[in-house]
Amino acid sequence: MSLEFREIHVFYAQKQVITFNDQIDLVKNRVENQLKAQPKDIKLLLVMAQIYHLYYNNYKLALNLIKKVLQIDPKNVDARLDLVDIMKYHSVGESSGKQTLLEECLELDKYYWRIYFIQLKVYDSMKLSNLFLLSKAIEYLEMFPNNFWLKTYYLQIDTDMSQQNKIQDLTYLKESEYLDFEMLRRLAYITKNQQEKDFSILCEEYSIRLNPNSFYSLNNLAYSIAKYKDNQQKSIEYYKKALEQNPNYFTTLKNLVITYEDIKDYTNSLQYLKRILRQNKKSEFAYRMMIGNSFKDQEFKIGLFFAKKSVELFPNQFDLLISYLDLIVRSSGYQIYDYEEFEIVSFQAMKYKTKNVSENDLDFICQNLIYIYSQNNLIDDFW
After folding, report:
1. Which helix (H) or strand (E) holds 303?
2. C-beta of residue 28 within 8 angstroms of C-beta of residue 55
3. Global confidence as pTM
4. 55 contacts 27 by C-beta, under 8 angstroms
5. Residue 73: CB partners within 8 Å, gap ≥ 6?
């Protein structure tokens, strides 16, 4: 598959799609100059807000412009949708706030396709099931059957396309006049699902050419380079560029931890794990990695600290409970001094065990309980 690079930048204002075919810096300068002459032009204000938000990661300046739009036109739908997109993109505000704004948009104009596109993005960010996302994408496509954005999102979710449909749909997407940096990123997802790895990477590279500051695109290209090109050092460079644009983007921080682990650079891996925990003291991923590393490094007392904290935060996770029990045993030199804690956690683990739990885990619990009870002359309690 091939794809020619085209300079395309797409914006949304007054329920219209606005495209530019110049480099984004030139577009920004042009819009700024026009705003000096027309400071209350809603289209220009919204385009400028989207430029700040999407191309410069400056959502605060974008919010100021959106506020001006809503002062001029309190019922403006695109301004509300931009607010939702900013909240999702930069992880600000509550999920309920995004949904409230989307419901307001539906009350203002339930026939505007962009509402449903943004709704899909919000659902996606909530980590809902693929089946749910697919059902919503199909529902929205039935309402707007020829919509490029909804069609692209549907194809991104639907990983079971037939070969014939794949060729037709990808041709349709590739030739679109709206194939901007975001839709290139989505096209990369689609082709990656179809095992077109080189083409997918090309889409990600083009996406970054259009928007060098897109931390989503930088992260995705870094991941692809590591996974499909086996070039971890190059991928780390792109991950770091992504963090320059958004230092708190969890996916990139997590990917850096894993990549450094893969190349056995545990010092840097630990630094990014600590960074995740500073950002989110309840990160399940970080606790799992800390516990796993403690086993590898045989730092059982350090692991015990994180394991104890993890079961306090995530009491229903059977595997974390088992890790905690294991570390109680290992950190005590297999003597189990804190037998009361071991007993409490053991029964907690058995309470939350699932069908997929191995017999080895249950044997581990039972054998150590027998040991505890025998050491404390409580063996009759076990039986």
Report:
1. helix 300-313
2. yes
3. 0.89
4. no
5. 42, 79
Q: Six-digit token pair at 353?
A: 């065990």
For CA atoms 91, 256, 187, 129, give the dihedral sign.
negative
- Rounded to 10°, the helix 181-193/197-210 angle is 170
Residue 127 DSSP class: T
DSSP string of 203-216?
HHHHHHHH-TT-HH
At residue 94, the pLDDT reads 80
Q: Does domain 1-213 have CATH number 1.25.40.10?
A: yes
106 contact partners, CB below 8 Å, separation of at least 6: 115
Q: Which of these, 2, 4, 8, 3, lies nearest to 211 by C-alpha position?
A: 8
| Predicted pLDDT of residue 65 | 98
The domain segmentation of the chain, as residue ranges, is 1-213, 300-383
Dihedrals φ, ψ of 9, to 5°?
-130, 130
Q: Which token pair is 36?
A: 């000096």
The answer, yes or no, to whether residue 163 has pLDDT greater than 80, is no
How far is Cα 204 from Cα 222, in angstroms, rounded to an integer?
Answer: 9
> DSSP letters along 319-358, please?
HHHHHHHHHHHHHTTT--S-HHHHHHHHHHHHHH--TT--
| 3 state SS of 299 | coil
Predicted confidence (pLDDT) per residue in 121-131, tens digit: 999 999 899 99
